[in-house]
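Hello Y.,

Per our agreement to keep a running log of every chain we model this quarter, I'm adding this entry. I've kept the format consistent with earlier entries: sequence first, then predicted structure.
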Amino acid sequence: MIKAVIGLGNPGKQYENTRHNIGFMVADVVASLLKCKKRYIEKCFSHIYVCEDHDVLIVKPQTYMNNSGIAVKNLLEDFNLKPDEILVIYDDLDLPVGTVRLRKKGSSGGHRGIRSIIENIRTEEFPRIKIGIGRPERKEQVVDYVLSPFNKNEKILIDKVISHAAKCVLNVLKYGVDKSLNLCNKKIV
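Predicted structure for the entry above:
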C-alpha cells in the first residue's frame, strides 16, 4: 500500500514550470484531486501536503533534484515507511514527450535524483512513475534542456500527461501498482 507520493523537482520560482519539475506538477494535481489542504508542513527537507481525509502524504523534496535521496531517506525514517510504500514521480529523458511509465522497481537509468534515492535508501525496490520529456538534439544541451520550460506545442500535451499521471497515482493508491500497470502505461497524444 502506497503511503507517500513523492514528486521530484527543484525548489524555487525559476524552476517552477521546467521539464525537471514535472514530478512537482503531478504532485500538486494529486494534492488538489485529493482535496489536500493548500498548506503544507515543512519536514524531512520537504513540503508535505496535509491530506486529512486520505492516509497518504504528498511530498515535494526541497533538496534539489540531485539530492532527492536525502529527503526521501528522512521521510522513510521519520514516518516509519518502507521503500515499497512510496511512489516516486519524475521526468525521464529517455522517454518521448507524452509517455508515462509505471514501474514497481528499477535502476536509476542515469537519472541523478533517482540515483540519489537509491544510494540513500540502499534499494531499487520502490515504485515509480516516469514521465517522458524527450531528449535535446545534443548531449551537451541536457542541463539547459531539463531546466527549460516546455514549448507551446508541448505544453498542450504535457497538461494531458500531467492529468493522466495524476489519475494513475489515484488508481495506484486505490488498487495498487500491479492492478494499475495497464491503465498507467500509455503514450498520450
